[in-house]
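Q: Hi! Curious about what CPXM1 carboxypeptidase looks like structurally. Here's the sequence.
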Amino acid sequence: QGSELAGWAMGRWTYEGIDLNHNFADLNTALWDAEDNDLVPHQFPNHFIPIPEYYTFANATVAPETRAVIAWMQRYPFVLSANLHGGELVVTYPFDMTRTYWKAQELTPTPDDGVFRWLATVYATANLAMASGERRRCHYDDFARLGNIINGAKWHTVAGSMNDFSYLHTNCFEITVELSCDKFPHASELPEEW
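A: Let's find out. The predicted structure is below.
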């Protein structure tokens, strides 16, 4: 359809209807419930959180691609990671899910918030499109006034994100880089994106 005609959801789901961006196990809720019940860290870990049993069942709604990425993460203990998205010019960092389950937006920092903010800032200030004083706002949010970084949950809540899963299950510090206002750039624009 072309970049100007495709909506933000185009291509987001697999053939089976699974949103790969939100298909990881929600470890946040388990951690926060354990914290609320004073079970952390003696009875429930606050890092290397195991995957819940329900998520490992053969009939669980987990895409084969998600299972493959999890196996890869477990095989290679990454400590730093970034996943690339399109549709905005901003770097987000965990947590991506709000702690107050009914809130659509809420600042929800990790204990390592300072490190995440630093990582996001390093990238955002080095990215020419983000750092440009002449850059335009992509959509409704003016991320330039925030230094082009934001806590994921402060922007919009996402349960089952790879960022939160990586952080809680494998202790990997992962950020999301939104590379461009255009979610579907033309082929001729891809070299600049890369």
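A: A fun detail: The chain has a mean pLDDT of 91.
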